[in-house]
């Protein structure tokens, strides 16, 4: 059933996880509990991810400068 070329298990899993993630995000945005505190927690988590990505990009750039 999930091994055909048109619809593989991997595609099913990715679709399922994407839908589940969208549902969770929608629930957080729409939920009546969404207060300033929750918004701040979401923003802080996002900021931490952005900081880590910026740090890694800086590390890669530094390595590339040494190579070139």
Features:
68 residues, mainly alpha, 2 helices, 79% helix
Structure characterization notes:
By secondary structure, the protein is mainly α. The chain folds into two domains: 1-33; 35-68. It is 79% helix and 0% strand. The longest helix is centred in the last third of the chain and has 32 residues, at 36-67. The model has no long low-confidence stretch (mean pLDDT 81).
Q: Rounded to an integer, what's the Rg over CA atoms?
A: 19 Å
Instruction: State the major sheet.
Output: none
Question: What's the pLDDT, averaged over the residues?
Answer: 81
Number of helices: 2
DSSP strand content:
under 5%
Total E-strand runs = 0
Can you give the helix content as a percent range? Answer: over 70%
Structural class: mainly alpha
Low-confidence stretches: none
Briefly, what is this?
This protein is mainly alpha-helical and 68 residues long. 79% of the residues lie in helices and 0% in strands.
Helix and strand layout, with pairings?
Layout: H1 9-30, H2 36-67
